[in-house]
Design brief:
Layout (H helix, E strand, L loop, with lengths): L1 E4 L2 E5 L2 E5 L2 E4 L6 E3 L2 E3 L8 E7 L6 E5 L8 H4 L3 E5 L4 E6 L8 E8 L14 E6 L4
Antiparallel strand pairs: 1-4, 1-12, 2-3, 3-6, 5-10, 7-8, 7-11, 9-10, 11-12
């Protein structure tokens, strides 16, 4: 598997979500880790990180969330997990063993508010392209 990570940063006001990794090669069956860090102004007391996934010719969709995580979240069903480290302001996505079906673009996002409609002060979504290389 080839994992290409686009070094990008999303900004909403002074708040930001960052995914900056460069490119790495991961073979099918290897562990996957996609890093995501965020920064919100000191006045923000709670941050809610999310991961979205976008498969070719499809719109992005919610993949894994920190708040209200359910076993039916697509990321959980596909064997992914993420740990919200509030001290280090990170929400890294990982999977013990990659599969060809994991090939997609992964977006990290964070918000300082969460509502039923999913609206809030979204800090932006940044993409990580995860492609498999079959040798």
């Amino acid at each position: 598997m080839f994992c290409s990570v686009l070094p990008t940063e999303g900004i909403y006001g002074a708040d930001s979500v960052t995914q900056a990794e460069g490119s790495v090669i991961i073979f099918q069956g290897d562990r996957v880790r996609l890093n995501c860090t965020y920064h919100f102004s000191a006045s923000v007391t709670a941050v809610y990180p999310f991961w979205y996934v976008q498969f070719p010719n499809q719109p992005p969709r919610l993949f894994l969330r920190d708040l209200g995580r359910e076993d039916w979240d697509e990321g959980i069903r596909k064997g992914f997990d993420a740990t919200h480290d509030k001290k280090h302001k990170s929400f890294h996505l990982w999977k013990p063993s990659s599969e060809l079906s994991d090939s997609a673009t992964y977006y990290c996002a964070a918000s300082d508010t969460v509502t039923r409609t999913g609206r809030g002060a979204d800090s932006g979504m940044m993409g990580i392209v995860l492609n498999h290389h079959v040798s």
